[in-house]
Amino acid sequence: MTYNNKITSSDKKQIVSLLEQILASEVVSSMKIRNFHWNVESHNFSEMHSFFEELYTETAENIDEIAERIRMLWHKTVSTYGEYLELSFLSEEARRDLQVAEMVQSLTQDKEITIAFFRTAIDKVSETNDVWTEDFLIALMQKHEKNLWILSSMKD
Ligand SMILES: [Fe+2]
After folding, report:
1. Which domain holds residue 70?
2. Distance CA 30, CA 37 (A)
3. What is this structure's pTM?
């Protein structure tokens, strides 16, 4: 039994495809942030270690909400690392020895890429009936923009 949310199945397919790319990118980003949380070495270690923890905690909440929105559109949620790596618009970070400034720079770039993707995605979703997803993506983008401001303010 599925409830009728008045969104056509072709619109749902398109929206789910956008949500899957966002979900995959959040997962890839989450692992990168954990890498930084674990491997950072800096005079302000404690501050950066905690900052990265806050970021991946927020990312974990985002991941769950995005996946559940996909379910509310009655699609099954992608759930393997192989699929995430294929769908993600962000890249993994294999290096473990980045300087803290490089970590901040890397996450700043990821936020810029993410926000650009969100702008396009929100435009596309706004052409459908799915106000729920549109509103959700706007709220998520606001979180990303706030983090972009924080990261951009981390200057020596
Ligand atoms: Fe930890």
Report:
1. 9-152
2. 10
3. 0.95
